[in-house]
Amino acid sequence: MPRSYDEILEANAAYVAADDHPVLPVRPSRQLAVVTCMDARIAAFPILGLQLGDAHVIRNAGARVTDDVLRSLALSTHVLGVRKALVIGHTRCGLYDPDGAIETTLTDLMGRPPFNQTWGTFSDPEATIRKDCRRLLVWPDRPDPFQVAGYQLDVDTGELYPVVPPTQAEPVVQAPA
Ligand SMILES: [Zn+2]
């Protein structure tokens, strides 16, 4: 059964009462932003050995590097000091759509995706991670320095498999005035 809102507030009261809430700075201490899927099975901090305050975690359906992810990363990098991005796709993702059935279902229901986006479905998980890392590496507004890596998570074991090794982005070349 879905958890009721009352139960959520009761759980929150217990969380607050545990009194284990350090006051942390707004800047992520590891200078890291993680882009991963909204999948309910991904415990983003524990699988990476991270603690509260260490990293930004930007989640959406499919761990896709969308325009809105770049919006978040603009704040992460240019305001809050992030210098590394990590894209984490995963096995058994809800957007894995080798026969196009999910794409067809969503399009039949809603027509076009909102905000001129795509649905973000994919048939080759590792190629998708490579493509999204590439988008970060050539992001025109990327900071300098900026490092990008991509992993595939086995959602059943929690194991990470490197797909894109840590790669330093080229500095952005400013057009002459
Ligand atoms: Zn997923």
What ligands can be seen in this structure?
zinc ion
In total, the number of domains comes to 1
How far apart lie the N and C ends? 61 Å
Quick one: how many beta strands? Answer: 5
Strand order of the largest sheet: 2-1-3-4-5
Q: What is the percent of helical residues?
A: 25-40%
The biggest sheet, with number of strands, parallel, antiparallel or mixed sense and barrel status, is: 5 strands, mixed
Count of individual helical segments:
5
- Give the strand content: 15-25%
Overall average pLDDT: 94
| CATH classification class | Alpha Beta
In CATH terms, what is the fold-level topology? Beta-carbonic Anhydrase, Chain A
Radius of gyration: 18 Å
CATH superfamily: Carbonic anhydrase
Order of helices and strands: HEHEHEHHEE
Principal-axes geometry comes out as globular
Keywords:
5 helices; 5 strands; globular; 177 residues; five-stranded mixed β-sheet; binds zinc ion; Beta-carbonic Anhydrase, Chain A
How would you characterize this protein structure?
The protein has 177 residues and is an alpha/beta fold. The chain has one domain: Beta-carbonic Anhydrase, Chain A, CATH 3.40.1050.10. It has helices at 5-17, 44-48, 67-78, 101-110, 125-137, and strands spanning 32-37, 55-60, 84-90, 147-153, 160-168. Helix 2 (44-48) links the parallel strand 1 and strand 2. It starts with a helix and ends in a 9-residue tail after the last strand. The model has no long low-confidence stretch (mean pLDDT 94). The site of zinc ion has 7 residues, from loops.
